[in-house]
Amino acid sequence: xxxxxxxxxxxxxELCDLPDGLPVRAGDDxxxxxxxxxxxxxxxxxxxxxESRSVVLRAATEDDLRRRRELDGETDKALAIFCRLTHEYGxxxxxxxAHWRLDRKKICFFFASEERFDFRALHKAVSTALDxxxxxxxxxxxxHARLLGGLGPCGRDLCCxxxxxxxxxxxxxxxxxxxxxxxxxxISGVCGKLLCCLAFEDQSYQQWxxxxxxxxxxxxxxxxxxxxxSHDAIKRRVTVRYDDGTEQSVALEExxxxxxxxxxx
Length: 265
Hints:
The protein has helices at 62-88, 120-130, 141-148, 159-162, 172-177, 202-209; strands spanning 2-9, 12-18, 29-34, 37-47, 54-59, 94-100, 106-112, 133-139, 217-221, 224-232, 237-241, 247-251, 256-260. By secondary structure, the chain is an alpha+beta fold. Residues 260-265 have low confidence and may be disordered.
């Protein structure tokens, strides 16, 4: 049985089992079922995974899509009630969205914040006011940026908005191994976190760097022994410094490792 990634909301995607013989493709609207009931989503892609917790029931019909639009139209009223109650309970939440399940048995509210809240009392009040099951979920600033959209420093639409579906952790190591020793503001996106594009070539850089000598290693060149001071993984070249203080860029294939000095890259 195939597995598809289905997006029900910008903040909610699930891996769903796709029954054999069901003619759906990426971009098609489908009805899915999980432990909470039924919902409408859009197939994003096929995935090689065995972690699905939901199942695609059928391709969405016109009635399903009309019902989805009706529920989306009711969202503003629910959001108004939710925002009013957050103020009454003194919770400084930045409410960014809500999502009704297709069967209208549950609604989920999303808020963005850098701090944690105890919203148990709020949860009970909202559930009573709407007379339905309620879920309240905190999202990160990266998810919020995906919802709002915008332009990155490259001048193109945000990657998280246009094509990145899974927001994986971005580490400062990725910038360092690409020799991007610049101020944090220049390698951060509109969300304030490290740029998603730093991860695009991470696997390639890790593979290239396996062949590169670490900084501090003594190597042999045509001019004699020299100390490795820096490297360019893409061009497969290293910069070495000789005993007289002069430096030279040398192709990786021209080097012969001699010994380590105890320094690390």
